[in-house]
Amino acid sequence: MSSFGGVPLDVASMGVDYLISSANKCIQGVPGFGFVIARREILEHTRGQARSLSLDLFDQWQTMETHPGKWRFTSPTHVVRAFAQALGELAVEGGIPARHKRYGDNQRILVAGMRDLGFAPLLPAALQSPIITAFHSPDRPTWDFKRFYAALKEKGFVIYPGKVTQCETFRIGNIGDVQAGDMHRLLEAMAAVLHEIGIE
Ligand SMILES: *Cc1c(COP(=O)(O)O)cnc(C)c1O
């Protein structure tokens, strides 16, 4: 879901039946639709099974097959156009290997800079993904994630608002049209915010 287009995946060798992703993840399109790459013979067994009218993948596929590329309901035209543009930009960047390298470089800059600011990542480097990184929240009574989040947003950086782990963590993503310079600017903003809210 989150890594398609940003991490090399050999779908054939993985024996994947369905790969589901969104226009607005590593392809870097704008939000508006999701897509599915399916093993045809598995998808064919789902005729008539959908419990929702609009989210009927089989019917959507059939309509696209029988009416060259037609969407069942109003086509999200602008979003599809943006997706085509995004695919072109992915090719210009050098394809998935180049994008994967950029995301990985972003992530390493982030972790090194966060370590300098006193933050430790939740996972060891070998398990970290280039997409998003969880950091332990500082073990300080003054730590207030909401305040930290709002102060960073004030400086133009929106980080993930939630955590997924049982531990006290927060997450920072680095996908999108984000370059090394942006990661350095984020780290500078972070240092300023920590100073402002009295956590250094
Ligand atoms: C992004 C994401 C979603 C939401 O998809 P959108 O098309 O962005 O609304 C759901 N699940 C996972 C795991 C995701 O990464």
SSE layout:
Elements: H1 11-14, E1 18-22, E2 34-38, H2 40-43, H3 57-66, H4 77-93, H5 95-116, E3 132-136, H6 145-154, E4 169-173, H7 180-196
Antiparallel strand pairs: 1-2, 3-4
Helix pairs in contact: 4-5, 5-7
Describe what you observe in this structure.
With 200 residues, this protein is mainly α. The protein has 2 domains: 11-93, no CATH class; 96-196, Aspartate Aminotransferase, domain 1. It has helices at 11-14, 40-43, 57-66, 77-93, 95-116, 145-154, 180-196; strands at 18-22, 34-38, 132-136, 169-173. Helix 4 (77-93) crosses helix 5 (95-116) and helix 5 (95-116) runs parallel beside helix 7. The chain is elongated, with a radius of gyration of 20 Å. The two termini are 36 Å apart. The mean pLDDT is 94. The protein binds pyridoxal-5'-phosphate. Pyridoxal-5'-phosphate binds at residues 1-2, 22, 24-25, 31, 34.
Q: Quick recap of the structure?
A:
The protein is mostly helical and 200 residues long. The protein is 42% helix and 10% strand.
Please state how the strands of the largest beta sheet are arranged side by side: 1-2
Bound molecule types: pyridoxal-5'-phosphate
Helix fraction bin:
40-55%
CATH class of the largest domain: Alpha Beta
Characteristic terms for this protein:
single chain, 200 residues, mainly alpha, Aspartate Aminotransferase, domain 1, binds pyridoxal-5'-phosphate
